[in-house]
Amino acid sequence: MDTVEEIRRMSGYGGDVIVVGGFPASESESESESDLAAGEIMVIWAIQGPTSFAPNALVAQSSLELRLDACGHSLSILQSPCSMNTPGVTGSVMWDSGVVLGKFLEHSVDSKVLSLDGKKIVELGSGCGLVGCIAALLGGNVVLTDLPDRLRLLNKNVQTNLHRGNTRGSAIVQELVWGDDPDPDLIEPFPDYGTHLCFISSPFVHTISNTSFFAVHFVVLGSDVIYSEEAVHHLVKTLLQLCGHQTTIFLSGELRNDAVLEYFLESALKYFAIGRVEQTQWHPDYRSRRVVLYVLEKKSKRCLTDESSLNQSC
Ligand SMILES: C[S@@+](CC[C@H](N)C(=O)[O-])C[C@H]1O[C@@H](n2cnc3c(N)ncnc32)[C@H](O)[C@@H]1O
Which PANTHER family does this chain map to (predicted)? Predict the structure, then answer.
């Protein structure tokens, strides 16, 4: 299959991304969101052939514990395989895309194409909490979130793995239901608030204004959070509520349903520039052809076609 890939950099991630759409002055700028989303699905399924590979090759979902080395620590993530029999419960075990995203963050920080130090980070649909724990070990001030009845296991995993003294950043667990208005703490200071006070010389520079210390970039993380059309609708609304023009989103997903992923991309491309991170930039030991990893940043105002339609479309 012949494809011409356009490579870009995004402001909160220093590695290359392959343009999916939504960038200013891009070859894709004139294409509709639905054409861009359909094109991406064709490309990704053709390149990765996900159906030929077994799901969850990186985690044993039947085990009560997942052990993983990250950031110089041996992490112990408790799972509850039995809870997966309860309808609607999906986060009581880990998923491959969570392991991929966590190890990608570690690898990117080690490779100096990403800094999470001192950044405010919100993780959506944290499940067992591996990704948020790794982000805190990498220096982020992380809020791990999930549905209200999913927080017990999440809390336990955070307490087990993060202690004062072993963690460069911090971690708290909080309820967040996609589509509901987020707790004001989650968006305080609002992602755009610091920008006029800050002098920005590089994507990774933290800025000092008098005695205040602003992290220029906010980060939102999500692994395997794109899995049903109904969830997509609420997820995109929450992403928009959490994101200002200084926010970078990292989403990893499992390639199990082309229609749902296409629906997500089409919805998100209305508001976000989206780039795909190639597997060559992931942690070399944690790659999977059933997983895809995207970076999203809010479109520049010039590219934003109709932000006022948010409430109708999400
Ligand atoms: C497939 S699991 C992925 C869990 C984890 N991120 C991982 O990679 O292992 C999806 C997660 O999203 C959460 N979730 C689903 N719908 C949600 C909603 N409407 N609001 C908040 N969280 C939700 C689930 O409880 C679950 O933890």
Answer: HEPATOCELLULAR CARCINOMA-ASSOCIATED ANTIGEN, RIBOSOMAL LYSINE N-METHYLTRANSFERASE 5
Tell me which amino acid residue 124 is.
L
E-only strand ranges, 215-283 = 218-223, 247-254, 272-276
pLDDT for the residue 277 = 98
Region 17-28 average pLDDT: 90
How buried is residue 23: exposed, middle or buried, by Cβ count under 10 Å (0-12/13-18/19+)? buried
Spatial distance between the Cα atoms of 299 and 49, rounded to a whole number of angstroms: 30
| Cα–ligand 1 centroid distance for 185 (angstroms) | 21
State the closest ligand 1 atom to the C-alpha of 95, by its place in the atom list counted from 1.
9
> Which atom belonging to ligand 1 lies closest to the Cα atom of 96?
8
- What is the residue whose two structure tokens read 């929450």? 238
Q: How many C-beta atoms surround the C-beta of residue 44 within 10 A?
A: 21
Q: What is the pTM of this model?
A: 0.89
Q: How far is the CA of 126 from the centre of ligand 1 (A)?
A: 6
In the chain, where the domains are located:
7-79+94-307
Pairing status of strand 218-223 against strand 120-124: parallel
The CATH number of 7-79+94-307 is 3.40.50.150
